[in-house]
Specification:
elongated
């Protein structure tokens, strides 16, 4: 008679790896530090982005309010101040130390550089000043241009044939213009060793083409218009 023998020995089971408590704590600490560092990096990036956005908004608000940011007192800082009046330009300007004066032209305005023009001044720099230029029709019916640098004023009368005001008298397309305005919408930094051109408006004829359209006829050497700049005395 054959009997089946059974074994009471326990079956072998898979054994879980064993770790020391110190090892587990070290791993948990490393993971926690990694997560904390990642969270810190994300929050830092978000904070930097927020700071950049706030700085841009602050700069925009300061520009709209006409406030200058003086980062380098050795440079001229210019910001145009919004004005609803036609043919009127105003700037808030920081002038480095020295004696400054204002000049302007209404004829013979070059595309680049400056030439001789009527001058007023001088005033002491190292501070912010207000500069303005305007073209107005006076009570006597004559058109005049006026420029001012912190109270120092200068101007002259314009003829009705001047190409800057001719379109105001005769609405026909007699002239066009090209305009460069310093610090328009965004503060601009300028070299005080060079003439600081705040406004260069060059009016020029508009002629009809063979196809019936219109095109600007710009004198490359000089033109009517208005040009305003500042110079520091040597």
């Amino acid at each position: 008679m054959i009997c089946c023998m059974t074994s009471d020995a326990p079956k072998a089971r898979g054994r879980w790896p064993r770790f020391r408590l110190s090892t587990v704590l070290l791993l948990v600490t490393i993971v926690a530090l990694g997560v904390a560092q990642y969270v810190a990096m994300v929050r830092t990036a978000e904070t930097q982005a927020l700071n950049r956005r706030l700085a841009a908004e602050n700069a925009k608000l300061r520009a709209e309010a006409g406030q200058l940011e003086i980062d380098d007192p050795s440079k001229v800082a210019a910001l145009r101040i919004s004005d609803l009046d036609e043919l009127t330009w105003r700037w808030k300007v920081y002038l480095p130390k020295g004696n400054w004066f204002i000049s302007y032209l209404t004829q013979g305005i070059p595309r680049e550089g400056v030439t001789n023009g009527p001058t007023a001044g001088s005033i002491e720099g190292g501070r912010e000043v207000l500069v303005s230029a305007t073209v107005r029709k006076g009570a006597d019916g004559r058109w005049v241009v006026r420029t001012a640098l912190d109270g120092a004023k200068i101007g002259s009368t314009l003829k009705e044939s001047h190409r800057l005001i001719a379109p105001l008298i005769n609405p026909a397309p007699l002239s066009g213009e090209s305009t460069d305005i310093a610090g328009d919408k965004v503060q601009e930094s300028l070299d005080p060793k060079q003439p600081v051109v705040l406004l260069r408006l060059r009016a020029h004829d508009v002629v009809q083409t063979a196809s019936g359209g219109w095109e600007h006829k710009d004198d490359p050497q000089s033109s009517d218009g208005i040009m305003v700049w500042l110079n520091r005395q040597p």
